[in-house]
């Protein structure tokens, strides 16, 4: 990567995306070793700066940094000076006084990571771990890594250097509030995939002009095309202040990955895998039959998240000149 920060998938060229994913494939080898550690970032400090609650993303970044031998500082807004009114600027500069080399930030306001990167307040790589409804680039990257591996298993071809040309990925649910959907639409299309958004009209952004995707309101019609993957989105009720659909039962009937829809896909011999960024609302947007199906990639996505975040931290802090060597101890 020839950039200092990772703020959005719209900033990634095709070559950047493949470079990260190929590096993540190399990093994945570390997880299968007895000693799951590389010395690549020894002496570097990574700060996890989380202003929103998180389990998977925060732990994944922490694990990634530690597997690269970096020192990790975890910062949560709760119980910190932020709760007393401290600004983002003062918080960031306090952390920079601790000689941070990279700041991984999750924030409820769209654009906060960009502000941190552009402000001059800090001299460190900034990685967006999710900002408002705007972007979540490492989630999209781990989803792309998962899809490359799905294609690799289907074709018997190594995933290294592979793109997603001609794969059909369907993203279903609360697109309106989803930074995951936004990041995936741009990254998957950059890698050659055909992307279809499926949701009730009330859960789609008002303006989709320029988005590289198709839109449908009919999940059953899209599933009849036997897509390669269906990515279910969590209903983000904490971001909703109005009635976006009549009832949860009606939402599930229209746009949930129910046991009946799973059976129809299986009976049709469709190759479709089931994805979800988590946390899952079982029985609402996804049934247990789908979540626990052999077609489900949910746990694989979690594992790939560590590899992708290792790759991102390594490339941002070491540069293109270095190559990870999983055989190092």
TrEMBL record:
Q: In which pathway does it act?
A: Pyrimidine metabolism; UMP biosynthesis via de novo pathway; (S)-dihydroorotate from bicarbonate: step 2/3
Please verify whether the record's keywords include Protease. no
Q: Which domain of life is it from?
A: Bacteria
Q: Which GO terms describe its cellular component?
A: cytosol
* Residue stretches making up the Aspartate/ornithine carbamoyltransferase Asp/Orn-binding domain: 166-315
Q: Which PROSITE patterns match?
A: CARBAMOYLTRANSFERASE
Catalytic activity, as annotated: carbamoyl phosphate + L-aspartate = N-carbamoyl-L-aspartate + phosphate + H(+)
What are the GO BP annotations of this UniProt entry?
A: 'de novo' pyrimidine nucleobase biosynthetic process; 'de novo' UMP biosynthetic process; amino acid metabolic process
Keywords on record = Pyrimidine biosynthesis, Transferase
| Binding-site positions, L-aspartate | 84, 179, 234
Ranges of residues in domain Aspartate/ornithine carbamoyltransferase carbamoyl-P binding: 4-148
EC no.? 2.1.3.2
| Gene3D superfamilies xrefs | Aspartate/ornithine carbamoyltransferase (3.40.50.1370)
Which residues are recorded as binding carbamoyl phosphate? 56-57, 106, 136, 139, 278-279
Q: Name one GO molecular function term.
A: aspartate carbamoyltransferase activity
Q: What's the subunit arrangement here?
A: Heterododecamer (2C3:3R2) of six catalytic PyrB chains organized as two trimers (C3), and six regulatory PyrI chains organized as three dimers (R2).
Functional note: Catalyzes the condensation of carbamoyl phosphate and aspartate to form carbamoyl aspartate and inorganic phosphate, the committed step in the de novo pyrimidine nucleotide biosynthesis pathway.
What family, per the record? Belongs to the aspartate/ornithine carbamoyltransferase superfamily. ATCase family.
Name recorded for this polypeptide: Aspartate carbamoyltransferase
Organism ancestry: Bacteria, Bacillati, Actinomycetota, Actinomycetes, Micrococcales
Supply the gene name.
pyrB
């Amino acid at each position: 990567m020839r950039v200092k920060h990772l703020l959005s998938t719209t900033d990634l060229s095709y070559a950047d995306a493949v470079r990260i994913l190929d590096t993540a494939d190399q990093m994945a080898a570390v997880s299968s070793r007895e000693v799951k550690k590389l010395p690549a970032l020894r002496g570097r400090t990574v700060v996890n700066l989380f202003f929103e609650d998180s389990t998977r993303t925060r732990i994944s970044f922490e694990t990634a940094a530690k597997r690269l031998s970096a020192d990790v500082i975890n910062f949560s807004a709760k119980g910190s000076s932020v709760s007393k009114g401290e600004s983002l600027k003062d918080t960031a500069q306090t952390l920079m006084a601790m000689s941070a080399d990279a700041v991984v930030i999750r924030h409820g306001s769209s654009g906060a990571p960009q502000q941190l990167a552009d402000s001059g307040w800090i001299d460190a790589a900034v990685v967006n771990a999710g900002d408002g409804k705007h972007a979540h680039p490492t989630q999209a990257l781990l989803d792309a890594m998962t899809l490359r591996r799905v294609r690799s298993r289907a074709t018997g071809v190594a995933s290294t250097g592979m793109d997603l040309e001609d794969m059909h990925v369907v993203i279903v649910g609360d697109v309106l509030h989803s930074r995951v959907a936004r990041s995936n639409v741009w990254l998957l299309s950059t890698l050659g995939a055909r992307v279809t958004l499926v949701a009730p009209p009330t859960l789609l952004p008002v303006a989709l002009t320029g988005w590289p995707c198709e839109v449908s309101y009919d999940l059953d019609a899209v599933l009849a095309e036997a897509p390669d993957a269906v990515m279910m989105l969590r209903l983000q009720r904490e971001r909703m202040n109005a009635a976006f659909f009549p009832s949860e039962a009606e939402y599930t009937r229209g746009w949930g990955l129910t046991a009946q829809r799973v059976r129809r896909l299986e009976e049709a011999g469709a190759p479709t895998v089931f994805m979800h960024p988590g946390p899952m609302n079982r029985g609402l947007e996804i049934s247990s039959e789908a979540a626990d199906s052999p077609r489900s990639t949910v746990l694989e996505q979690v594992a790939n998240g560590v590899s992708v975040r290792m790759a991102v931290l390594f490339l941002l802090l070491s540069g293109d000149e270095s190559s990870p060597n999983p055989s190092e101890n």
